[in-house]
Amino acid sequence: MLIAFLMAPQGVEQIELTEPWEAVTDAGDKPRLLSTKAGRIQAFHHLDKADTFPVDEVVASASADEYGALVLPGGLANPDSLRMDQDAVAFVRAFFDAGKPVAAICHAPWTLVEADVVRGRTLTSWPSLRTDIRNAGGRWVDEPVRICTAAPGPLITSRKPGDLKDFCAALTTEFARAAAEMASR
User: Fold this and answer.
1) Catalytic site residues?
2) Bridge pairing between strands 48-54 and 69-72
3) Is the pLDDT of residue 109 over 90?
4) I want to staple 140 with a disulfide (CB 3.0 to 4.6 A). Which of 45, 68, 133, 164 is the partner?
């Protein structure tokens, strides 16, 4: 299955990109890095610059129809930038409209709030987002990983880099389930 990893040109927490990327690759899926601009994205280790990664596709020209699932890595600046980009927000919303699985960690649910897709769902995130999630009609919980199936397509969320092992296990399981369902149709 082709998996979209969406992030801004800078500000993504590197480990929240690389560990899920490795998990989906190890599961036999093919990840693709999407961003709001062509070129390379600049990852960070907290507030320090880390590695850069090549962009495979610009989100403005991408279609959610091409992908089986979406991963939204966190980092403080990354989702804040994404939620200000109409193409990124529309791309995220399209996954929910299609009932496809979405996985978001740390600060990434800010983009979900902007896409107006948390209403009626239970999710977790970095604790500072709890009020934003509640104000958007979601229910916030303090758990390492939460899989919400309140609407078509699972939403897999996690709080922080320390939860990556659980997050990666949950997203690969849900992505495999979604691929099996699509294959049986």
Assistant:
1) 107
2) unpaired
3) yes
4) 133
